[in-house]
Design brief:
This protein is mainly α. It is built from 3 helices and no strands. The chain has helices spanning about 15-20, 30-40, 40-65.
Length: about 60
């Protein structure tokens, strides 16, 4: 289980990102995605996340069959 940050919730988005980037249990893939996303237009990031969600849901469904 991943320990909670020391601050009380809710954390601001920049604080959440900083916490994830500093946490050793978070995957390098997630950390790189967050670093890249911070530099992009938020709407473009949301669009890409929706595509990723759709594709990965299909992949997971295929694996479970």
């Amino acid at each position: 289980m991943i320990p909670e940050p020391s601050k009380k919730y809710p954390l601001k988005s920049d604080e959440q990102i900083a916490w994830i980037l500093a946490h050793p249990a978070m995957s390098p893939w997630l950390k790189q995605a967050l670093r890249t996303a911070r530099e992009r237009d938020p709407n473009a990031v949301l669009n890409d996340l929706e595509v990723l969600r759709h594709v990965m849901n299909s992949k997971i469904s295929d694996c479970l069959r």
